[in-house]
């Protein structure tokens, strides 16, 4: 599923948006995991799922997408 301008909120969950927001703040994966009380592996899986859903290749591209859609 590729994200579209019409469906940005349905593409990502609240948990995924929280991960993106922390990545946008410049936090490394370890710090994101601590902040969200998750294990590092869970955060990595969420990042992969976010990238797959948005059809991007890197987390920074996902952060840019979310910022452009004013989700973070």
TrEMBL record:
Coiled coil regions in record: none
Residue intervals of the HTH luxR-type domain: 5-70
Keywords: DNA-binding, Transcription, Transcription regulation
Superkingdom of this protein's organism: Bacteria
SMART domains associated with the record: HTH_LUXR
Keyword Plastid listed: no
Annotated signal peptide: none
Alphabetized SUPFAM superfamilies for the sequence: C-terminal effector domain of the bipartite response regulators
Protein name: LuxR C-terminal-related transcriptional regulator
């Amino acid at each position: 599923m590729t994200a579209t301008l019409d469906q940005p909120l349905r593409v990502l969950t609240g948990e995924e948006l929280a991960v993106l927001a922390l990545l946008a703040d410049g936090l490394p994966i370890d710090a994101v995991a601590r902040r969200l009380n998750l294990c590092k592996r869970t955060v990595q899986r969420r990042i992969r799922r976010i990238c797959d859903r948005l059809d991007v290749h890197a987390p920074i591209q996902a952060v840019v997408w979310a910022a452009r859609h004013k989700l973070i």
